[in-house]
Structures are given as structure tokens and as C-alpha cells.
Predict the structure.
Amino acid sequence: MHLCFCTPSAFAQQRYIDSLQQLLGRGALPDYEKTILRCQLARACFETDINKALALTGSGQQASGANAKAWVYATRIHLLVQQKNKPAAYAALDSALLYINKTTDSVARAMVWFRNGWLDLVENENDMAVTKLLKALELFTANRQYGYASITCHYLASIYSYGADEKRQTEYALQGYRLAQQSGEPDVLNTAYYTMGQHFYDAYKLHSSQRNLLDSACYYYRQSIAISNQQKGLVLVRSNTAGVALNLANIYFQHFSAADRDSVFHYLAIAEQIATETHLTEVLVNCYGMRSEYALQSGDAAGAEQLLLTALLQVDAATVKMPLTRSRIFKALERVAEQRNDTKAALGYLKSYVSSNEEAISQERMANAQRIDARYRAAQQEQKIVLLQQEAAFASKRNWLYTGLGIAVLAALALLLVSYNYRLKASLRKHELADKEKEEAELKVRLKEAETNQLLAEQALLRERQQRLEKELLAEQLQKEEKSQLMELLADKTSPQDDQVKRLVKRQQQMDEEYEGLKTDFVEVHASFFECLRQRSGDALTRLDMKYCAYILMGLSNKDISVRLSIEPKSIRMARYRIKQKLGLGKEDSLDHFIRALG
């Protein structure tokens, strides 16, 4: 569980610094959480007391564990840069990189990447900064550290500001704003408002015809100042608010009419107050410079000169030498002197400008040399880390190799034991196999005998069926002869006038002959049909029922069957219903389909 920049829900009525100090006073907190609290407290007071902030973090070696050391060294990178001690900042970076791969806490690892990228940004190494800041953003977001993630987006947006890449600046400004809202931390929201205001102001510079962009910039800048006033104890980086106030004063100075002069001085007063409290010399110098411009516009050259001299005193009183800022002030003083037609004073200011500029160039050369040296050492450190990682990977592979060899040896021993055991049982298995083969052969012989017996039984059944069919044919023939004799007798007894009866008798004889021929063919082709009908009905079908079934199989309709049998069609339907019952068919079953399937 990680602590955030601030916890407004718990400490809304207290100043942030006091809240952190109260937490540190509790003895029950683990050492790692105390380390994080000290780092956050250092960040909270770096603008007002940089020495106290550095003392809170210690040397870094005092922290216990890789996670705590990574936090401390990452925090000291920021503090040492604020102290204008870049060599020490790079040394802290070297130490932080030593622990980045030893940490078990991904938030601590994210802090190292964050400050590493931030240091690149300070040195204008934007391409290198982007890669590292994106790593930090990914880790912060994954761990729901929305405050840190939002500030990371602030720096990413600043890389693409001033028209460098409008699309990406917009993307990171909006993402940082959403993350700040999720965090609910006033300090983070203040930074997000600043970022959004800068985004819209940069967009207005690119699209000056769209006045609404400038209005949006002013809106977010005012939101930053408002939250800074409302949450004084919870907004840590007041330099952001000072910068916002200075930007608003500059916007009113450049893009509004002279009637808005009061707004310019209102925001300048806010910037000057914060800059004085937090020792922001650069902001103070800019405020005096803007006031001097107004004085010049009003024709008060002496007042403009006095303001610039006051700014020069502020620079000279600063603990850190600022030759470049001094050269800019002298350049402005030269311009004022020329406007007053004071050639002597202008020449003196010009000489001071040249001298300060040379000092600034010398300072920049020294800084570049230090930066190159620090970069070289940082690259060496990163190379060492890569080598350590490769060595660790090699050691891991070597351990896996030794483990694999051990497993292989154990497997070989196990194989020998299995082989020995197999040889011991081989003879028994051979005997068992021979017995099984013998049993299998006997089984095959018995199976063959069973198949032979089954074949004989089937042949006997076929013979029995054939004999039964022959008997049935013989009985039918006898019946047919009896019927023929009866018909002849009937024909003899009828009178010549009974032509209709004679025709019926003749027709019946023809039909019997046709049926006899069809039945002979039918029996030859469908020898098992009647047997199947008997089995299905349980021998319940009569000879007439069998005849009906034969006609149906032959494809004759009810009408054809009624003509052949000289009965009413209604009788045929009744006969079909009776046959379906005897065959066990349901009401919805088709008798025709059943008989055709059986045939």
C-alpha cells in the first residue's frame, strides 16, 4: 500500500506538511512507509527550505532495503537540481539506477524512471526523456498512483508544447487532467490546470483567429489560482501558481487592451508575492521586467530603469549565480538609457551586458562539461546494469543447466532401475504371453465352431420357411380349385338371362388368374415378406389380411383392391384399420410406408 502526495479526505483541515509530520511521529509505521513519508515531506518543503528537504532524505545509504533506497535517491535527484548541484544530482541518479532492478515495489521503480526522465527534460534531452517518462507513466497507472501519473503527463505535455507537436500535447494534457480528477489531490489538480492552460495558450498562438482558445487558457489559469487560494495548505508546488499568474499577466499585457491594465498588475502582484515567499528569482525578474515595459510605454524611463535595477539587486542577492539573467537585465537597461538619450549610461550597461554574457557562456560551457561527464558516468552505470543483468541471466541459465543435468542423471538411474526390473520380469511375461496366445487360439476355434452352428441353424430355418410356403401354396391351389368348381356350378345353374352374373364370374376367374401369376412372382421375389408379417403381428393376420398386404406392397390403391375382391371400398378401409392394430401401428403411422419398408 503506497502513500499519495496528499490525502485531502483525511487532512482537509490541516496543512499538508503538518499532516506528514504527525504521521512520521507514529512509531507503528513500517520503515519503508516512513521513508516514503520523508521523501514526500522533502518535496513539500523544497521551495521554502531546500536544505531541510535534503536533510530529510539523508544520504540514501541510511535507507533500509532496495525499495527505500530507490525512493530516496530518486527524490534527491529533484532536490539537488533545485539546489543547482547537477553533478550531485547525477551521482544520485547513478545510485538510483543501481537499485532499480533490485526493487520489489513497482512504484519505487516508477519513481526512478520518473526522475531519470525529468532530469533528461531539464537538460533538454527530450527524446531520452519521453522514453523514460512513458515507462514511469505505465507503472504509475498500473498501480493506480493517479497523482504521480498526472504529473508525469504534465511533463510529457511540456515536451510537445510551444507548437512542437500540438496533437501529442493535447493528448497528454487531457490525460493528465483526467488522472488529476481521479486522484482528487489539490496539488495535482493545480498542476493539471496549469498544463491545460498552457495547452490552450499554445493552441491560440498557432490558431490566433480562434479567440475561444485564449478564453479557455485564461479559464484554466484562473482555476489554478483559485485552487491555490482555497487549498493553501495542500498545494505544494507554488511555483506553478506563480508561473500561472505571470502567464495571465502576460496574456492581458499582449492580447488585451490598455483598459485591462489593472488585471495585468493584479496577476503580477500574485506572482511577486509567491515568488518572494518561495525565492523564485526568475519569476520576480520577469515581473519587474513587465512593470518596466508599462513604465516605458507611459514615458517614465526613470521608473523603468529603477524597476530593472531592483530586479538586478534580486539577482545579485540570490545564492546561485545567474549571469544569463543579469545579461538580459543589462540589455533592457541599455535600451532604457538609450530612450533617455543617456549615451554614457547606455555604454556602461552594454559593457556589463557583454561581461555578464561572457560569464553566462563560460558557465554554460562548464555546465555542459559537467553534463557530459555526468552523462558519461550515467552511461557507464547503465552499461554496468546491463552487464549485471546479463550476468544474472547467465547465472540463471547456468543454474537451469545444472538442474537439468541433475535431472538427467536421476532419470538415467531411474531408467537403469526400470530396465533391470524389466529384465527380471521378462521371462514371466513371456510365459504369460504364451499362455494368452494359447487361450486366444482355443477361443478362435470355439468361435469358428459357433459360427458354423449358426450357419447351419439359419439354413435349417430357411428350409423350414420354404416348406411352409410350399404347403401354403398347395392349400391355396386346392382352395382355388374348389372356388373354380363352385363358380362353374353357379354358371351352369344360372339362366341365359343372367348375363350380369356370368360376367361377374368370368371377371372373377380372370382376376384369380392375374393374382395367381402376380403371387407366384411375388413369392419368388419376396419370400420372407409373409414371414415378417407373421412375426410382427404375432401370427394374428388372416389369409385375407395377408392378401391385402400383398396388394398394398404391389402398389394397388384401395379402389383397385376393392374391384379385385369385389367388395366395397369402405370394407377395405376397415380392413386396413384392423391390420394396423394387429401390426401394432399407431394412429398416425402409415400402413403403406410400413409394408413397403418391410418388403
